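Chapter summary example.
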Amino acid sequence: MENEFYIPLLQMNSLQGKVHLFSSTRKEIDFQRDDEERDLLHSYNIPIRLLQNKHLKENLQSVELHLKEMITLHHYLFNKKQLVRDFITFNPVMRDIKIWAQQMAMEQLPIAICGTQGVGKRHLSQWIHQQDVASDGYFLQIDCKTMTEQDIRDVLQIISTLPENLLSQLLQNGTLYIHHIDWLSFDLQQELLELFFDQLNMRHKMRFIISLEHDLNESYKNGFICCGLYKLIDQYVVIPPLAERKQEISSFVSLFIKQASQRKMCQRIKIEKEAIDVLSNYEWPGNLIELQQFIEKLFLAERSIVTKHYVLGALPSSYVEKAEQKLTSLADAEKEIIERTLRICGNTLEGKKQAADILKISLSTLYNKMKIYDL
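The structure predicted for these 375 residues follows.
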């Protein structure tokens, strides 16, 4: 089993920092920090895998010299325990995407995951990384929507300057995931490509995954990605919006409730079936992100049972109005069908029996509907 040590584990009211090394013989190495560094280091645990004991001293010296850079890089690194493990597929298209993703996990091909915001591009990229059982590398994520271009350049600079022994322990056999790379300038896209070719792929065998809001070919034609990036991508997939995967919504609701209850360490809320039906019929323009945020709000409301009435009140009023209009139009359509059938069969008792048979309802149900619709 590979050795690991974590830095730093600091005492709250002490300037004394500690590096803990876990191996067959546990060692502890102390080092002094000033107030500024202590504040910077507090609450960070930076995992560094030491592949060989003979390099221990060299690794510790490198960590000491490049501690701040490693803290910065650590914000964007995730191990497999921190990534998603579930992949919900009740939709035929998503089942095909899952098969494709399993194949990609066995390869080191540069790929693109396309789709509108919130459909699960990051989720799928993490799942692909998880499926590579032969690798225990880290998942390096760069989010081009939340990070400034300067932030991204700082990360690239750190990767370019870190000693090889540290960099290999962090990035070897890992995944570089660039979220919404189509938000970057062509210059920075080119810098990422050069870093990937010159260092990450050749030396550390990293997988390369990008995400785009539009189809790969469309993104290139519209000038969102540079020529070099377009030519690099070997395969791509487009994730459909949640509105086209309504059969998966109830499963995502259960998953998000489970995750929220575990994170908040509280009892799971229960959602009535009628409420689930309402959620499944909503379009969710923000896709999975909007659905997850909705579930979070249910926990904030501290409701143990969520009813259809509560869900309708929590959804946008425009949707509720459309739903009511739809119900009204269905009622009008039903009234028209019954009225037309009675006109054909006649308003006698025998005619009503014949109409009920045609409509596939009982005679008593027909009488009730005639009363409701004043026929």
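To summarize the output: The chain has 17 helices and twelve strands.
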